[in-house]
Amino acid sequence: MGRIFVYAVIVWIAYFLVKKVGKALFAPSSPRDQARGPASDAELIRDPLCGAYFLKQKGVKGVVEGQVIHFCSEQCYDKYLKSRSHN
Ligand SMILES: [Zn+2]
What we know:
There is one protein chain. By secondary structure, this protein is of the alpha+beta class. The protein folds into 2 domains: 1-36; 39-87, CATH 2.30.170. Helix content is 49%, strand content 18%. The protein is built from 3 helices and 4 strands. A hairpin with a 6-residue loop joins strand 1 (44-46) and strand 2 (53-55). It is rod-shaped. The protein binds zinc ion. Zinc ion is lined by residues 47, 49-50, 52, 71-73, 76.
């Protein structure tokens, strides 16, 4: 009688472990990994006019012909717009 009880406990523990390990193996990737995108405010981008590199969050965001372009300063944005209108 006692031996059957011990086997039952062992089987239950094995089942519990398999269930736990299986859950860890087949669990979907954490939401933190999915949220990590290529676009970030700390991204280093290049001014298309003067060629200077700057942090996206420090730059000036401009929309030219429906495209969002980032510039290092308002002056570069103005110059870029003027240079385009002359062409
Ligand atoms: Zn610039």
